[in-house]
Amino acid sequence: MSNLLARIVALVIATIIAGPVLAQQGGGRTRYILAASWQPAVCQTNQRKAECAHQGGERYDATNFSLHGLWPMRKDYCGVSEDLRSADKDGSWRDLPAVTLSQAGKAALDKAMPGTQSGLERHEWLKHGTCTNMSADDYFGTAVRLVDELNGSAVRDLFAANIGKMLSAEQIKAAFDKSFGPGASDRVKMSCRRAGNSRVISELTIGLSEDATTDAQAGLGDLIQAAGRTQFGCNEGMVDAAGF
Questions:
Q1: How many Å apart are CA 30 and CA 224, to the nearest integer?
Q2: pTM score, two decimals?
Q3: Cα–Cα distance, 235 to 56 (Å, whole number)
Q4: Please, what is the Cα angle at 51 between 125 and 75, to 5 degrees?
Q5: Is the distance from CB of 137 to CB of 156 less than 8 angstroms?
Q6: Is CATH 1.10.10.10 what the domain over 31-238 is classified as, yes or no?
Q7: By the 8 A CB rule, do 244 and 47 touch?
């Protein structure tokens, strides 16, 4: 075999061997989504919701991300009857069965998820939590822990320091990479809403790996890094202030 042919064969073999490694380095698969809302923006277009009735700048959700949900990919309503599915889809969430939580778990969830005032946790449990093989306490406890980690990051600090101002995708992506490692921002999508003459940032949906519900010690950064990539979505928006 000539030296040239030998080199070509060696290169092909090396490429075949390295392929899975390079694919893994490029990101894994997204198994869960952590949805974190910016509550003042949500309330701009949902002013009749109970949690929006008395929103003010002194509330926790005025300067921190709120928990919307923790969603398994491509699975919902696991083992839920058709009657409950229909009731959930009708949107009357306060009429759904109450979610049984410990006192500490309920207190933590009420702080992280202002939507509990309108039954959001009942909807989230029926549609998403039932597909995680977790108890309600463990499911919501995991979701609260992850959104708390987001609120302890440079991402939340960036939002809190720019209330009433515009933020670009580049600024937010840089904050994600600073907090959760280079490339973390490639696993995040930002959603914006029109509120009057402004476009406000309403939600961040963050891709997570399958360890989100199986490893209680997994940090948000590790879960993000092991997820698949996505498009960032909205390219800029205002960080809305509490109140209307």
A1: 9
A2: 0.87
A3: 27
A4: 20
A5: no
A6: no
A7: yes
Asked if 201 and 190 count as a contact pair (C-beta separation under 8 A), the reply is: yes
Instruction: Map tokens 């973390």 to a residue.
Output: 184
Q: What is the CA radius of gyration of the chain?
A: 21
Report the distance separating Cα 235 and Cα 22, nearest Å.
29
- Other Cβ atoms within 10 Å of 170 Cβ, number: 12
Which residue's structure tokens are 């075999």? 1
- Give which of 162, 181, 177 is closest to 236, Cα–Cα: 162
pLDDT tens across 181-239, in order?
A: 999 999 999 999 998 889 999 999 999 999 999 998 899 999 999 999 999 999 999 99
68 backbone dihedrals φ, ψ, rounded to 5°: -95, -55
Residue 64 identity: N
* Domain residue limits, the chain: 1-26, 31-238
